[in-house]
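Researcher: I need the complex structure. Ligand is NAP. Inputs:
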Amino acid sequence: MSANETTPFVEAKGARIPLLGLGTWQLRGRACARVVQQALRLGYRHLDTAEIYDNERAVGEGLHASGVNRSDVFVTTKIWPSHFAPGELERTARECLVRLRLSEVDLLLLHWPNPQIPLAETLGALGRVKHDGLARHIGLSNFTVALIEEALQATTEPLVCDQIECHPFLDQSKLIAACRRHGMAVIAYAPIARGAVRDDDVLARVGAAHGKSAVQVCLRFLVQQDIVVIPRTSKVERLAENAAIFDFALSEQEMAEISRLAQRDGRLLDWAFSGQPKWD
Ligand SMILES: NC(=O)c1ccc[n+]([C@@H]2O[C@H](COP(=O)([O-])OP(=O)(O)OC[C@H]3O[C@@H](n4cnc5c(N)ncnc54)[C@H](OP(=O)(O)O)[C@@H]3O)[C@@H](O)[C@H]2O)c1
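Model: Output:
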């Protein structure tokens, strides 16, 4: 991908989401702004942040410094579950926009489910944020199949995605199928398993056949299924590697072989911290 090419995207309920975005968890301050700016100059058109990452200000700085038109960049942020009460959610969304120095985000997500606050109330507040013009689209993150279905019952507003942990080492087939059934996009976080895919023999071997790295094969495996990927890197030189995934294709046989790496217990993120429900 280069700045002259347009990033492929997926469509979900009226949202056009670039298939490649830059993850920004743990990137902070000047270093974060610099990576964001470089990514946009290289052709990235999608940025993923969250109020809890404490970097929205830096992400906004990188975006504004890049010289890329605001309307050409898809910006996502997320509301932390402790701010899901109606009133508080709207206030938090406004604070996110102030930090980002934007009048609206393209996508605003509920970061994790919060069983302490009725989902219908939270979704009502999220819908008001959209109607007030602060977010073009709204969606979910870390919602299970059952919770996606509860959310869809509780609002008439289109929920365009579920952002979930998704990489070749984790079996997310049920959740992906549920998103497809409901016309929602899947956005894969930790798409390169926090860097671990680099050391996988199967991915490396498939990569060698295409002149690509194991990381590129991993990302290709996901985008070839129309799954949006948001790999993070703090290293400018890795931005180009992670973006060069649209100039080759994996065969059916290669896709099947990579699919066999998935484990039901392949999750990297520890759910215990939040007391959230287990998946299905
Ligand atoms: N919704 C949620 O609850 C949630 C949860 C987690 C993450 N996210 C989002 O998803 C994004 C991505 O997930 P993640 O940051 O957890 O993990 P990730 O993108 O799978 O992996 C990031 C790690 O991989 C390394 N890396 C990047 N490119 C590489 C390459 N080409 N070769 C080798 N190593 C490479 C990075 O190190 P270097 O910096 O050294 O390159 C970093 O340590 C986050 O940044 C965040 O925006 C959302």
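Model: Summary of the prediction. Strands lie at 9-12, 15-18, 22-23, 46-48, 74-79, 105-110, 135-141, 159-165, 185-189, 228-229.
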